[in-house]
Amino acid sequence: xxxxxxxxxxxxxxxxxxxxxxxxxxxxxxxxxxxxxxxxxxxxxxxxxxxxxxxxxxxxxxxxxxxxxxxxxxxxxxxxxxxxxxxxxxxxxxxxxxxxxxxxxxxxxxxxxxxxxxxxxxxxxxxxxxxxxxxxxxxxxxxxxxxxxxxxxxxxxxxxxxxxxxxxxxxxxxxxxxxxxxxxxxxxxxxxxxxxxxxxxxxxxxxxxxxxxxxxxxxxxxxxxxxxxxxxxxxxxxxxxxxxxxxxxxxxxxxxxxxxxx
Length: 262
Hints:
Layout: E1 41-42, E2 48-58, E3 70-79, E4 83-94, E5 97-105, H1 111-114, H2 126-132, E6 139-146, E7 159-166, H3 170-180, E8 184-185, E9 199-202, E10 207-209, H4 211-215, E11 250-252, E12 256-259
Antiparallel strand pairs: 1-7, 2-3, 4-5, 4-6, 4-8, 6-7, 9-12, 10-11
């Protein structure tokens, strides 16, 4: 994303549109990384925000104004309880997109988690049938569940999401998740210490807000119009339509956002 002018009253209008409420509390990962390794690995874990801290460090970058000086930056503390591997899901691909071919679930699933997933179509020989149809599978996902109570939260309802398995061929990926069925894995088994990760989450919701709060539009001059906390113009006379780039009031917060290279 390129730099924007600070004085523009419409700055940020093209950043994230439309700003609508997220469909689910589980963040959706639209692009997964590829691992050039023969060892398969699950690529996602889950965490909950516990608080904030101030990090005091020394700027060791050369040729910057603050080189060698003390810096104070904010940091977010996340609680990452173990996640439970519920099952395996295989996807095939064609010109119409992805198609779920099979779902294999663990034998003993906790009662509070089994309520959230549909096990009506659970087959007796699902594991054997899945192994026979691995030739047409292009991606293997692990079905993962995490309980907020494990992080000290009061919420009883668990979160269930999918995590891609990468590395090796499809057979190795399927065998890797098969060995983890019904087991809990910790974050140390997925990410190495000091690794760079991408964090996706749902922002804090603020409800319906005006254009100043929502888009950071500049306030109008005193007595220049009837209103001060509104946009000065919604557009020209022709064409007779309001473009999507014009800041308008609406839903603020509860959006999915991704921070890269954390």
